[in-house]
Predict the structure.
Amino acid sequence: MKLLLTGGRIIDPSQNVDAQMDLMIENGKIVKIGKGIHKPGNASWKSSAGEITVIDVRGMAIVPGLIDIHTHLREPGFEYRETIQTGSAAAATGGFTSIACMPNTKPVNDTRSVTEYIKKKAVSCNIVNVYPIAAISVGSEGTTMTEFRDLQDAGAVAFSDDGKPVTDSALMRSALEYASSFYMPIISHCEDLHLSAGGSMNEGFVSTELGLQGIPAIAEETMIARDIIIAEYTKTILHIAHVSTAGAVRLIRDAKERGVKVTAETAPHYFTLTDEALREFDTYAKVNPPLRTDRDVIALKEGLKDGTIDAIASDHAPHASTDKEVEFEYAASGMTGLETSLGLSMKLVHEGILTMKGLILTMSTNPAGILKLPKGNLKIGSDADVTVIDLDKTWLLDRNSMRSKGKNTPFHGWTFTGKAVMTIVGGDIKYRELP
Amino acid sequence: MKLARKDILGIKDLSIDEINLILNTADSFIEVSTREIKKVPTLRGKTIVNLFFEASTRTRTSFEIAGKRLSADTINISASTRSVVKGETLIDTARNLEAMNPDAIVIRHSAAGAPHMLARMVKQSIINAGDGAHEHPTQALLDMMTIKEKKGKIAGLKVAIVGDIAHSRVARSNIYGLIKMGAHVIVAGPAMMLPRDIEHMGVTVHDNLEKAIRDVDIIMMLRIQLERQQQKLFPSLREYSNYFCLNRQNITLAKDDVLVMHPGPINRGIEISPDIADGPYSVILDQVTNGVAVRMALLYLLIGGKQ
């Protein structure tokens, strides 16, 4: 089975390429990249090449398959919110070929059996690559470390107690040291639970007006500072999840300058919305960490531009209507992201914050690097995980037509420019809206 | 004249004209409560549900009396958190009430925004009787009515609001209302009870009682929630009352004709000394009287006969 994409704009930060070329896929691998692989009218070429599916993607971008390293697939345990099947379908629709899923399922992914279950289920769904992230501590309760080596052997690609911080600094130190000894990243959910206690939105003028208890930026920043200090001291690998504040960007930038092995991600909603989105108590815009302020949005964009923030990850957090259609402070935190992440991030390109190459770096190449996945590039011999993006396609988001079970997005009715129109995973087309 | 709106959710979204209309209407209802037969037929055949998810004696009674004096049928539901425990959501409660077709629902809830959610869900008029630390519009209206009654005006007056501003819906609604009506508002409390960026609401901020009440026309003392001590918001009631209790000595810093107000219930001797609460400056019981008139006015303006 051969697949030839012709006439597209190939953007691959790993090879520093941004040029119009063809790309050929054979047996699940990328076998050729170059100008004029396809010579229209060259009959002999056609016959010698055997069965080739040729797809004309002129005017569109061909990029390494997008990778979302922060999703919640809710299975096992919360299948009413999302399943590996529906989450994978949402991923393919959003242009993602690989996703990593957080361990806050029920049971928590803290043992080989859960990791294997997720892997097996994902393989049987056969849509996108699913990489389980295992818990740092048993039950993500922050007391006893999980069996890192066994979990790695079962297929876990990183460790995180996402949703909760590791409050015990000694446990965090041990986790960083142990994971780093076999080159596995620790992904830290940075939140000082004492400072955030009772809060349901960013602490600032809007929370003051709404009378809602705030979560101050310092709840995130003090924990990031702690983790950076531990990682620096132990020379270990640290990845900071869902960065949302200007102070956090500054801490990470300073740490990188000192040579600390820290990477960071932010989510599209943090550089798109501010706490003003909560004026009408819209629970769909309730997330943790919370939406911040204009000042933070500017700092996050600067961080993306200068590379302080390595990756964009959606923190895809599907919820059922029963989780959200309640009083604001009782509502669950989180929004779906797999089907809006690219559309929202494309706005950074339109605003001139990132080049297309820079965008693909943060949505594919860097995410692969953080989790050490052999992905995120279009090099010859690599897995044929490829996303085709129609950069000019304007589309309207209708939450009811999303593939995810979670319809909880505040972006319903928004118009986007730029959409994944074909998602190829391991050489097979998993999503296609091209003619 | 009627209010051209379905709900009263907060003072923030009321215009000056609307506030004046409510206050003037309330003035005209004062007299009803002084009659021997304290009842007018204005809302006969109307049904008002008082849906209280949070304990309240004063506000609930005031709404009930207001409804009854207008001849409406009033039903009190003290939902506390019981229905929540049973698993019934606010939305289900609301839809069930809606199905019984009342004309107005008065709601008090510990969660900010709960009345707004209800207002989006049901077709009936919603009156916010206090939502979390967000707004308590009828309290601010009765406070403004009292100030106007005693001082003849609101514009140009200096008003100090003192106490746990961070957790006070009374403070927020009064800040919106008083500033709209042209007063100068000063807020004061221990630093940890002053919410972030409160100065952007247009108020002067002090962390000291004496500074806050100097030369003011009105002092509004807020009830200190005794459970806040556990939330690390202040060291002890003793310390709080030593520094933030309005008493015979510090009240001399205010104007000679200062009015002392309190939304109640009072913690005597903690935020206000008994002699001040019961003394000549106090208009605390006038506030309660005016509360009935303001609530009658709102009910009339929202669900009263067709224009």
Observations:
- Residues 217-234 of chain A form the longest helix (18 residues).
- The CA atoms of residues 298 and 344 of chain A lie 15 Å apart.
